[in-house]
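Data availability (excerpt). All sequences and predicted token strings are deposited with the supplementary files. A representative entry, Antibiotic biosynthesis monooxygenase, is shown inline so that the format can be inspected without opening the archive.
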Amino acid sequence: MFIAMNRFRVARGAEDRFEQVWTNRERHLAEVPGFVAFKLLRGPEHADHTLFVSHTLWDSRVSFEAWTRSDAFRKAHASAGANKDMYLGPPQFEGFEVVQAEG
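Structure token line:
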């Protein structure tokens, strides 16, 4: 299993708009082999931003990497730069191989 996460520093006051953009966007994940699950997480609030994390679970790193090269990925990210004013910098990617899991 592989977990892919992107951390977003969303400017204070733009949280609801950010959630709307993510809720209403086309994801195209279900059509990709190896995709298991997606979650959008809202984290701690700071003076200038609120932390959000997109969290996807894949059956393997190979499946995740194939997604990043797919037409579905390009479609899902086609309007990614349209709302730059919501962000304090670019997202920070983190990828993790699952070493142990329960449940």
